[in-house]
Amino acid sequence: MLCASQVLLASLRYRRPYWMLFLKGADNWKIYTVIQQPDHQRTEMLYQAWLGGLDRPYVRPKCMAHQPVWLSKKRHALQKARLEGPETSMEKYVLEWYKRFHSFEGTERPTIEDLHIAFDLVERPLDLSYACQLLNQCRNHYYVRLGDDSFEIFLEACLRVDRKDCASYALEHADALGFWNVSDNCRRYLTGEQTWYRRSPVDLLYYPLEENAERNAAVTSGAAASATIASDKVGAQERVAEATQTGATTLAAEASAEAEAEGDVEATDDEIARLQAELEALEEEMSTGGGEGNGGKYRR
């Protein structure tokens, strides 16, 4: 008598159809082996009708455990947007994001700049939730490498909606979330060592502005004083430059007047010389013409 080996007992080769031999990841695969039976076919058709998107009753063929790609695409195209009636700019951006990157129509991949735009659009706590979902997609679906300033932009978005605790959590789990670069100022700010996380290179103010009002007032007063000194220096330089320019203009006018006078003198001398040459030429012609006339008279 032949004994079934442990390999045969553990194998599903004879427990399910051959077309399921290399099937991977099918949940509850046994229901697809009896799908042609009346009760199971009725259940399957009800399930397909509940899913929707079809204009006639539909049941999967016996040799397919998953939905066909064309049906998935059709249902994805027919489904309503999960976010209906977008109110804020962030919600509109989320719909645009799903259309560009997360649908069958989209062929692009998001970049780190797209994620930074999402964080810049955060205006309320719900917007921050949407931005974190997009961060999750960039990190786990598209494997986008975050930038060196991504954590600072995320911190600004959290502080804008008064959720500093989210930034603190992100600091604790920076490696898991993909924030590979956290500046020392941001780290000290979140740990309470200092009251600012960034100093603007444009106006030299410390951010956030509410917590650094006194420091920024001192910077503003110092900047105003230095601006006054600089304006005085600039005014003095402008006055010197104006005086220099006036003197140069006067000298240029005098030089031009002298040049015009010299030109007039030279023109007068040239005119006199020309008139003298013409007078000499006329005298020669007159003398020559008179001699010829007398000679002809005597010959005659």
Automatic annotation (TrEMBL):
Ranges for region Disordered: 281-300
Name used for this protein in its record: Uncharacterized protein
Organism: Porcisia hertigi
Compositional bias of kind Gly residues: 288-300
Lineage: Eukaryota, Discoba, Euglenozoa, Kinetoplastea, Metakinetoplastina
Domain of life: Eukaryota
